[in-house]
Amino acid sequence: MTDIENILTPESFYEEPNAIIFTTLLEMQAEHKPITVLDVTMALMAKGKAEAIGGPVYLAELTRSVASTAFLLEHAKALRQCEKQRGLFLLGEKIKAMSSDTFFDVDEVMEYADKGLTELQLNEQGHVHSLDESISRYYEWCVSNAEHKSSIISSGLNGLDAILDGGFRAPDLIVVGGRPSMGKTALAVQFAENFIRAGKHVLFFSLEMTDIQLIGRMVAKNGVYSSHVRQGTMSTDEWRQQDENLGRLQGLRLHIADSNEHKLLSAIKAEAYRFKRKGMMDVIIIDYLQYIKTKQRFEKRYLEVGYITSELKALAKELNVPIVLLAQLGRKNDAAEDQVPKMEDLRESGNIEQDADIIIFPHRPWVYNNEAVDQTGRSWKNRGVLYVAKNREGQRNVKTYFMTDPQFKEFSDDELANEQLPHE
Questions:
Q1: For labelling, which of 103, 132, 183, 292 has a CA lying 20 to 30 Å from the CA of 89?
Q2: d(CA 55, CA 294)
Q3: What rounded mean pLDDT belongs to the chain?
Q4: What structural domains does the chain harbor?
Q5: For residue 126, what pLDDT band results from cuts at 50, 70 and 90?
C-alpha cells in the first residue's frame, strides 16, 4: 500500500466494487491494521459494504487472480494511465458540449480545456491529507530545503531575502505595490533577471511594455544608456557592451507575454496552464494588476480587482508557483514625508491585502524632493527603501534599503544603511 497510495486513488478504478475495496484498504492502512482477506471482509461488513462488492467470494477471486505482487508498481501505473485516458475522454466530451453551447464564451471554453489538461498531467485530484501524511510531507519538505533549497527563489537582494527567510516560495502571491516612478517595473525586471540567471523558468506578463522595451531595460547597464539606444546615438563602446549584455541573456529561460489579449485574466491563466504542462514555469511575474480585466460584470471595479487577486492566489496554489504581482497605488499630493505607502492604500483595491502572502512597497523619497535626506543626512538620490508591510510566514512591517544606478535599471543592497537597522 505504501508503494502505490501516492499513485492511485479510489477514483482510479472504473468498477465501483474495486473503488470501495481500495477505499477500505486506504482506511485500514491509515489505522495500521493488518490487511488480509478476512480483515478486509470484516471491515467491509462493518461499513455495510460487503454485499455491494459481491461479498467474500469476490475478494477471494481477486486474491486468486494475482500470482505475484512483483510487478505491483507497473500495474498501478498502468491503471493510472487508464484513469487518465478516461479523464481525457470525459474532458473531450465536456469541451465538445461547451463548444456547441452558445451560452459559453470561446475564451471560457479554452480556459476550461487548458485547466483540465493541466490537472490531468499534474494529477491534481483534490486529495485530503491525513495528519500522518501531512507530517511526512512536511518532513520531506524540510529535508529538501536543507539539502538543496530548490523551493526558495532568491530575490537577488540580500536584505529582502533575509526578511523573507531566503526569498520567494510557491505558492505565495507577492504583491509589489507603489505609486508612479517608485520602481515597481524596474524591480520586477531585476527579479526576473535574477531568477533566470539562477536557472529558473520565468513567465513574464508585460501588460504595459512590449518585449523589446523589457529587454531594453535588461541590457541598459554597464555603460549602455537607454536614452542613447532610443535616440540611435550609441557609441562603438556601447554597441560592444550591449552585445555582451545580450549574449549573457541568450539561452536563459524567460518567456514574455506582451499582447493585448493577455490583459484578460482568462488568457493569463490559460498561458500559465500551458507553460506548466510543458514544465517551463517556476515563477510568474505580472506587470501590472490594474491592467487585468475579466469578461464578468461587476458593479464596482474594486470588486473585479478582488476577484482577480483571489483567482491569482488560487492559480499560484494550483500550479505550485510563486506569483509576483505589481500593483499601482494612487499618487498623493501631500508633503514628501507623507508619501510613504501604507497597507490602507490598498484597501480600495479589492482583496489585495487579504489575498497576498507578501506585500512589498518600494519607496524613493528623492522623486518627491531632490534635496531629501535620511535621518543620517545622506541624500536619497539613487537610493530607496523596500517596506515589507505583510509577510504571512515571517517578519512584517520591516524594511531594507537599496541603491540604484543613475539610469534606475539595477538594484543593489544599501549595505551602509542596512547596517544601521536593528537586528533580531
A1: 103
A2: 53
A3: 84
A4: 10-89 (1.10.860.10), 153-418 (3.40.50.300)
A5: very low
